[in-house]
Design brief:
The complex is a heterodimer of chains A (196) and B (596). With 196 residues, chain A is an alpha/beta fold. Chain A has one domain: Pyruvate-ferredoxin oxidoreductase, PFOR, domain III (Pyruvate-ferredoxin Oxidoreductase, domain 3), CATH 3.40.920.10. Chain A is built from 8 helices and 6 strands. Chain B is built from 19 helices and 21 strands. In chain B, strands 3-2-4-5-7-6-12 form a 7-stranded mixed β-sheet, sandwiched between helices. Chain B has 4 domains: 3-219, Rossmann fold, CATH 3.40.50; 227-341, Rossmann fold; 367-539, Thiamin diphosphate (ThDP)-binding fold, Pyr/PP domains (Rossmann fold); 541-596, 2-Layer Sandwich (Alpha-Beta Plaits). With 596 residues, chain B is an alpha/beta fold. Classes of the chains: A alpha/beta (196), B alpha/beta (596). Chains A and B meet through helix 1, strand 2, helix 2, helix 3 and helix 4 of A and strand 1, strand 8, helix 10, helix 13 and strand 20 of B. Strand 2 of chain A pairs antiparallel with strand 8 (171-178) of chain B. The complex binds thiamine diphosphate and iron/sulfur cluster (SF4) (3 copies).
């Protein structure tokens, strides 16, 4: 299974990818991730690739991802080419407008971008920032989104291995808060699914 | 032996390989994508038996590892590719003198480039210095190669270069960790004239080392890092992570090709290359950066006096610059084999949607923004050239600050400014340099300015850390990688000791004072140094945020300082409280006092 995680530098995509990859290792599989570390972490575009299907290289081909997790609507749209036709997506609706937009150098239309994602994938849109804050910290956006992915029913990982992986990769003092965030993501998506 | 399965970044895998091989001294200077190698060694060093240090620069780091190796201790030095330019002087001589304890030089290359000044290829340095080069294709192989590199180095008494690239350093794989450790006693330094480089010794060693190259190539012919796989008419030769990508393509499309994997790449495994070339009708060479394997294959053809068509960078078949990813590699393979395999064109495009530019920026609350703004205000209307340097503050080039007119390499700002001042005496030559860069390569340039009476203005951006590469300590912080403290070296005192006539330290967020001090520095005849001291926001997260009330929507705040926390909402400016750090810089800009 190939998962592409997109976001803005500083949002914590790397931890999300590590949690997913390690959960696959707990299930006895081999996993790989490919990260963006460096200059882009200062508010630039970042992506993490997670591959659990025994590939040799860490990077997902264009049109190869089964799932797109995006921490930000515009970065979701920017990376939609990685998604398989009809692939699933979980998108955080909280936008981060780039400085270029504030300066009037490029336009940012969040609604248009989300509409484009909706037309081209099976996507759910959730305010992960809000759910993370309600769980105790804005930093828990990654756990909300992992929860949303799990709630979508696309992950080939059990809840138990995700829990164990979170336990291994998150500082003990932040674990409870992140577990709450995970469950709020699961619940949000499940409610959306029953509605439609 | 206990085996644990871990998800490890390539850099952590290299660190663990070195720890398993019993490394005793590890030195380095931070640089993307190499930084996490040394940081991971420090993490694994729970009992403190390994001496780990961030050195002041790569030259110092390499010499420290060499000294330890002279004593028989296994040592490792880490850096990014441009770091090896700085360390090339000791490297070239060490290739002549040789080593005793296994010594591994980890140099990370950055195809793209993604976070570097240049797209240089370290494999050339191996050839230049007659030092073997190992080029891993995955984190798993990087782990194996790191362990092997120490053995090889001890067998041949030469340092060994381990050259991962970004896609190996910053990708992770599933690694079975060997908990056992290689152990041996360090013999200590044994006095011998062989450690003292002199022309006659260099001549003798040159003869020996050239002979040794053939012996190492024979070892590499039989090494499993180099191998021929598969069957077919056509051949593909690949190295580094490109091998992994080609393997994925072969698996995905069930291709029949003979694949040559080149992992121990210098000196070339010539017999294996020969065997490969005999078996194929034509060859495609896929490697990032320079055509190193490709030239080696041409060499084997020439030496053995036969011909096979080779497609690669040298005949323009493969792009000479940038990364090889799955999709462009697939296109090249399709063209080479005359088949159509993928359907990338049919994937979901982004043509139907307008996407805003999102370049990296200085963080909200970054002290560098305040420093640049103070200099900009102070020098308004005056003729000024702002010579930048390497660090987070290079981002001061972006709109709206536009306060970086030159950037070349680490430490160059201070010296480029001197050249500009000499050629154009009526300009105000400013040099901006970070604290870590100051210790790495700024001090000599400053001494040069004082010695040669060049009237430049140096602005030291002291954010108390090496921020760009992920907050490493440096001599000004007094913190070490052994969890100990050392006396902090004070930059102002260094400048004074170098006889700089004007030295002032000021907090850049104290805007009025900052502007005044810069004006005084510019007026001063001679070298001036202003140290803007305020911590990087990643070192302390302020709980305070600013708010905007009764904004008139003039956008002056955005247009003058461009803080990423400021955004436009229904014609008015608002502050994103998840980003704002309450630094208060924007308050100095707002004409209506709307920012609280
Ligand atoms: C020769 C060389 N070595 C290492 C690097 C990697 N590097 C980029 S910026 C930087 C240091 C930046 O620290 P500092 O000068 O304190 O500026 P800051 O990022 O904290 O603003 C380093 C080591 C490089 N570009 N060139
Ligand atoms: S106080 Fe103003 S300049 Fe400082 S971080 Fe907040 S919005 Fe940006
Ligand atoms: S990491 Fe620190 S120095 Fe770098 S941009 Fe952010 S605040 Fe500035
Ligand atoms: S400078 Fe003041 S008034 Fe003008 S847009 Fe910014 S906050 Fe509003």
């Amino acid at each position: 299974m190939d998962i592409l995680i997109a976001g803005v530098g500083g949002q914590g995509t790397i931890l999300a990818s590590k949690i997913l990859a390690y959960a696959a290792v707990i299930e006895g599989r081999k996993a790989r991730t490919g990260e963006t570390i460096g200059m882009s972490q200062r508010g630039g575009c970042v992506v993490s690739h997670v591959r659990t299907g025994g590939s040799h290289s860490p990077y997902i081909p264009v049109g190869g991802a089964d799932l797109l997790l995006s921490f930000e609507p515009c970065e979701g749209a920017r990376n939609i080419a990685y998604l398989k036709k009809g692939g699933k997506a979980a998108i955080n609706t909280a936008s981060i407008t780039p400085v270029s937009t504030a300066l009037g150098l490029s336009a940012y239309d969040g609604d248009k971008m989300m509409k484009y994602i909706a037309e081209n994938s099976k996507a759910v849109f959730i305010d992960a920032n809000k759910l993370a804050k309600e769980s105790g910290s804005i930093k828990a956006v990654n756990s909300v989104l992992i929860g949303a992915a799990f709630g979508l029913g696309v992950l080939d990982l059990s809840e138990e291995s995700l829990r164990q992986s979170m336990k291994k990769n998150i500082k003990p003092s932040f674990l409870d808060l992140n577990m709450r965030a995970f469950h709020s993501g699961v619940k949000e998506v499940e409610e959306m699914r029953t509605k439609c | 032996m206990i085996f644990l399965k871990e998800i490890l970044l390539g850099n952590a895998a290299i660190a663990l390989g070195a720890v398993t091989a019993g490394v005793k001294v590890v030195s380095g200077y931070p640089g993307t994508p190499s930084t996490e190698v040394l940081e991971s060694v420090a993490q694994y060093n729970r009992d403190g038996k390994i001496k780990v240090e961030w050195s002041v620069n790569e030259k110092a780091a390499l010499e420290i590892a060499a000294g330890a190796s002279y004593c028989g201790a296994r040592s490792m030095v880490t850096m990014k590719q441009v770091g090896l330019n700085v360390a090339s002087d000791p490297l070239m001589s060490l290739g002549v003198i040789g080593t005793k304890g296994g010594m591994v030089v980890v140099v990370a290359d950055d195809p793209g480039p993604i976070s570097s000044q240049t797209e240089q290829d370290t494999r050339h340095f191996g050839k230049y210095a007659n030092i073997p080069v190992l080029d891993p294709s995955s984190p798993e192989e990087a782990y194996e190669m790191a362990k092997y590199a120490f053995e090889l180095s001890e067998r041949i008494n030469l340092p060994v270069i381990l050259r991962p690239t970004t896609k190996v350093c910053h990708s992770s794989g599933t690694i079975e960790v060997d908990e056992s450790r290689f152990e041996d006693e360090t013999e200590g330094f044994v006095k011998d004239s062989k450690w003292v480089i002199f022309p006659p010794l260099s001549y003798r060693r040159h003869l020996e080392i050239e002979k040794q190259q053939g012996e190492i190539a024979d070892i590499f012919d039989r090494l499993s890092f180099n191998r021929i796989e598969g069957d077919g008419k056509y051949g593909i030769a690949a190295g580094g992570v490109t091998y992994a990508i080609v393997k994925d393509i072969i698996d995905t499309y069930n291709l029949n090709v003979i694949l040559l994997k080149s992992g121990a790449v210098f000196p070339a495994p010539a017999k294996l290359y020969h065997e490969f070339l005999l078996r194929v009708e034509k060859v495609l060479v896929l490697e990032e950066l320079d055509p190193v394997i490709e030239e080696q294959l041409y060499h084997v053809l020439a030496v053995n006096n036969f011909h096979k068509p080779i497609f690669g960078k040298l005949n323009g078949f493969v792009t000479p610059a940038g990364e090889l990813k799955f999709d462009n590699t697939l296109k090249i393979i399709e063209k080479f084999m005359g088949v159509r395999l993928g359907n990338v064109e049919e994937s979901i495009g982004t043509e139907g949607i307008e996407l805003p530019l999102r370049s990296p920026v200085l963080c909200a609350g970054c002290p560098h923004r305040a420093s640049f703004y103070a200099v900009k205000k102070a020098m308004k209307g005056k003729k000024i050239v702002s010579c930048g340097d390497i660090g987070c503050y290079t981002l001061g080039n972006a709109k709206p600050l536009e306060m970086t007119d030159t950037c070349l390499c680490m430490g160059a700002g201070i010296t480029i400014a001197q050249g500009i001042k000499k050629a154009e005496p009526d300009t105000n030559a400013f040099a901006f340099i970070g604290d870590s860069t100051f210790f790495a390569s700024g001090m000599t340039g400053l001494a040069n300015a004082v010695y040669n009476n060049t009237d430049i203005n140096v602005i030291v951006l002291d954010n108390l850390t090496t921020a760009m590469t992920g907050q490493q300590p440096h001599p000004g912080t007094g913190k070490t990688m052994m969890n100990t403290s050392s006396p902090k070296i004070d930059i102002a005192s260094v400048a004074k000791a170098l006889n700089v006539g004007f030295v002032e330290k000021v907090n850049p967020f104290d805007h009025k004072k900052a502007v005044k001090v810069v004006q005084e520095a510019a007026a001063y005849q001679g070298v001036s140094v202003v140290i803007f001291e305020a911590p990087c926001v990643t070192l302390f997260k302020s709980e305070e945020v600013c708010r905007i009330e009764n904004c008139i929507g003039c956008k002056k705040c955005i247009n003058e300082i461009g803080c990423p926390a400021l955004y436009v909402k229904e014609g008015k400016v608002a502050i994103d409280d998840t980003l704002c750090n309450g630094c208060g810089l924007c308050k100095n800009v707002c004409p209506t006092g709307s920012i609280k």
